[in-house]
User: What shape does this take?
Amino acid sequence: QVQLEESGGGLVQAGGSLRLSCAASGRAFSTYSMGWFRQAPGKEREFVAAIGWSGTVYYASSVKGRFTISRDNAKNTVYLEMNSLKPEDTAVYYCAAKRGLATMTVPNAYDYWGQGTQVTVSS
Assistant: This one.
């Protein structure tokens, strides 16, 4: 069992930056692949970024070059550094955890989810 808690969301102007954190409780954090997803009002939840237990990273094309995912296994935490934010990045951002390295961009492949943190980018 893994419990996830996101933090770091907020209101920022376009072009600004935010760093989201996701703290995990439970054992064997280093063996989980971790993902960030987001959901805007009226839209489906979409993949943002993921990092495997091996360190391999994946990004959605819409955030590649602007967002960076990383993990600190000693702190049981995964981060999402978001730069050059745009109004279209506005959404609730969710952290998720799964076993294995397959289908890391698919929400249904993840076993555990946090409650989400709101990110609002003003124009």
Summary: The CA atoms of residues 19 and 81 lie 4 Å apart.
